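[SOLVED] Need 3D model of a two-part complex

Original post:
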Amino acid sequence: MTSRSSAPSPSANPVHVPPSDSRQRVSQAFQQLQDSICQQLEVVDGQAAFQEDSWERPDGGGGRSRVIKQGGVFEQGGVNFSEVWGKNLPPSILVQRPEAAGHGFYATGTSMVLHPRNPYIPTVHLNYRYFEAGPVWWFGGGIDLTPYYPFAEDVVHFHRTLKQACDRNHDAYYPNFKRWCDEYFYLKHRDEPRGVGGIFFDYQDGRGELYHGPDQDGPAAQHSRQVGELPSRDWDTLFKFVQDCGNAFLPSYLPIVERRQNLAYGDQERDFQLYRRGRYVEFNLVYDRGTIFGLQTNGRTESILMSLPPMVRWEYGFEPEPNSREAELYNTFLQPQDWVNWPDA
Amino acid sequence: MTSRSSAPSPSANPVHVPPSDSRQRVSQAFQQLQDSICQQLEVVDGQAAFQEDSWERPDGGGGRSRVIKQGGVFEQGGVNFSEVWGKNLPPSILVQRPEAAGHGFYATGTSMVLHPRNPYIPTVHLNYRYFEAGPVWWFGGGIDLTPYYPFAEDVVHFHRTLKQACDRNHDAYYPNFKRWCDEYFYLKHRDEPRGVGGIFFDYQDGRGELYHGPDQDGPAAQHSRQVGELPSRDWDTLFKFVQDCGNAFLPSYLPIVERRQNLAYGDQERDFQLYRRGRYVEFNLVYDRGTIFGLQTNGRTESILMSLPPMVRWEYGFEPEPNSREAELYNTFLQPQDWVNWPDA
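Solution:
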């Protein structure tokens, strides 16, 4: 063990106290993020508009779900804002944050999943969230891309845009959160990443630690736990970082849509897209932390499962043809790669 | 509390010792069940044949998976036999059978899911399984029906056939196992049963107890735990019961296929079938004991997930039109009902 690999323990630095208006500020920022995303996506889609459902949670809180269906670009997309509170966090979270036991909680977040119709446009997922519970608070979330027929230049553009947003805040963020994303969006029963990743982080509370994984035994789980060390960060510093991440979504994704939305495709590409969407369903129902949190806390089922694709196919024993474009997805893109330094892109 | 509702504790009666050839006898019976089911289903389908994959499990055991695809009747169907062994049962089972901790285990089973193309033919699921682990052994399983556009006479026929098979063994079986089935195949996050049920049981080891539920908070969970009391049963008595249940599948289901396979349907019926198949996916990935056991014990993923439908649809916020046939499914059939005494059937 070198001194570099001995990450600071969670209690090495004190947790800063959030400002008195923390909940309002985060909630407002997450609603603005939802607004700006929906507004731009409607422009890009050109045909369909988001329909909004406002809802209340019987046990406390509520949200506004916005769904776009059968659009020009988006076969289905959902952008949710929610703000909920209650008496106890579910056991799956208390294991990670035992200090929260016996305290009421507050949680707010914006989450988004877009399923484009054209198989050359990747599916994209975003979620940023904030929790307070007794003595602890934290930010979590991320954004990740799931292509069907990928172009390396699209994946590189996506990752470089995220890295720029991270680097404006701290140069240790991107390498750690990129690796955490590769590890988190991983289907253990398939031994397969969900897509080409992006960034993911959880339990960011200003203590030095960046990396709390692994939940699973993914390929990244063998890596050392943290790249570099960080000073203690205060609440405002982390809040700004999460806002920067949220604002990076549109410039990371819209250029990909614009480049690919007019590419012609046929039944083969469509069939493969529907097949690969099955992996999305498997991940979200078996592993996803946000889905499980929602179902465990009696969230609004239709809003939680809005992430599931509108049409999906399973096929027993499917294997891509050797040297096909489908095989290239598995062999090149569904492997953790150093996308920001990818050659020739 | 009446004396009737105080069910005997699991240790009230001793566990009988299985015969020395128990594993071979059950394994052979489950393979014969797979054979006879596949043979008859091919006759009924008329177009497609089952394709078999034999597989070995690296940690011990293996199986033979048989899949029929794009048939005359069956859009997809799978009938699996497996026989696996290993060092430790997964935690989810050890909670129910702590006596098995620290012992190797043996498990064998036959499972089947059929997804017909015609929305007037219900999806059907069967699974019978046998476990040995140190001092304990048990049988489990059942069969249940999931219609899209149901006919009461089909549901009544299905339940009456199962009741006859149960009654030949003990008249307390059907009422208990029918109720357990209603409780088990229940989607908590939808507050909705998966279908019209059938029979389900688990941990049957000859001790008096019939009923170990609930795992969830389904509508049946409020009922008293057991109808009637049973004498201690030996291994052979239970083995015969499980065989009778397995043999009841073909007469319970094939008459329904024959009656409905030539009914004409259109896009509306097909769309609703694909939408309702989404519930099947949600149940199997979020709740199903067999799926979770398979994934937790590094089973063969393609064989485990063979239960997922070939084509599925999700639709945000879907509600059936009032007084429609789709609404009738929800209001009449997706409610626990006393099907064997249904009027006018």
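Edit: Confidence is low (pLDDT under 50) at residues 1-12, 215-224 of chain A.
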